[in-house]
Specification:
The chain has helices spanning about 15-25, 35-50, 100-110, 125-135, and strands spanning about 5-10, 55-60, 60-75, 80-90, 115-120, 135-140, 145-150. The chain has one domain (about 5-150): Gcn5-related N-acetyltransferase (GNAT) (Aminopeptidase, 3-Layer(aba) Sandwich), CATH 3.40.630. It starts with a strand and ends with a strand. The chain is of the alpha+beta class. The chain has a seven-stranded mixed sheet, sandwiched between helices. Bound molecules: coenzyme A. Coenzyme A binds next to strand 4, helix 3 and helix 4.
């Protein structure tokens, strides 16, 4: 298997991202996008929020995962600006290779000092465990979502 390369994503990369998103949410559809058209719109909106905070993981030139973060997110719960991780996805065929951790580490560096916030589906146990291992703590619940925070 080729080397894992993490690099900043570009607008051109966006074309491939919705399909990877849909594939990666199989089995946890209730937390994903309803269809590919909604996924395209969602991804476009995430990118526009903070284009500098989009990273992709590549193996042999193929995107196998990505992360969208935001350096300027206003958290209603923290009553201040925090760093946010809005989406992270690794293709099922490349899970448990450390790619998720590499993407989170890259985003956290980009987000700089201070807290990092994210929301995860309450039944998405795999992701919750993954975040806890990386130092995030569970906070409030809102509907089917749980807020998690890391203090750096
Ligand atoms: C959550 C997600 C991004 C994690 O990605 P990943 O690339 O599998 O993450 P990592 O490989 O860094 O870590 C996953 C596990 O593999 C283990 N691992 C890491 N490197 C490893 C290696 N070289 N060999 C064996 N295991 C390894 C980690 O310790 C971790 O263990 P855990 O399952 O006990 O938490 C991925 O499961 C995913 O895309 N899920 C669907 C989308 C989703 O839920 N996103 C979050 C929305 S809030």
């Amino acid at each position: 298997m080729g080397e894992i390369v993490i690099r900043r994503g570009t607008r051109k990369d966006l074309a491939k991202i919705p399909e990877i998103l849909m594939e990666s949410y199989k089995g946890i559809e209730e937390y994903g996008e309803e269809n590919i058209d909604k996924a395209r719109k969602y991804i476009e909106d995430l990118y526009e929020e903070d284009p500098e905070c989009f990273f992709v993981a590549e193996i042999d030139g193929e995107i196998v995962g990505f992360i969208f973060c935001n350096r300027f997110w206003y958290s209603k719960f923290e009553h201040s600006r925090v760093g946010a991780i809005h989406e992270i996805v690794v293709l099922p065929s490349h899970r448990h290779e450390g790619i998720g951790k590499l993407l989170i580490d890259t985003a956290i560096k980009e987000l700089g000092a201070g807290k990092v916030e994210l929301w995860v589906g309450e039944k998405n146990e795999k992701a919750i465990k993954f975040y806890e291992k990386l130092g995030f703590e569970k906070k409030e619940t809102a509907g089917k979502w749980i807020r998690m925070v890391m203090r750096k």
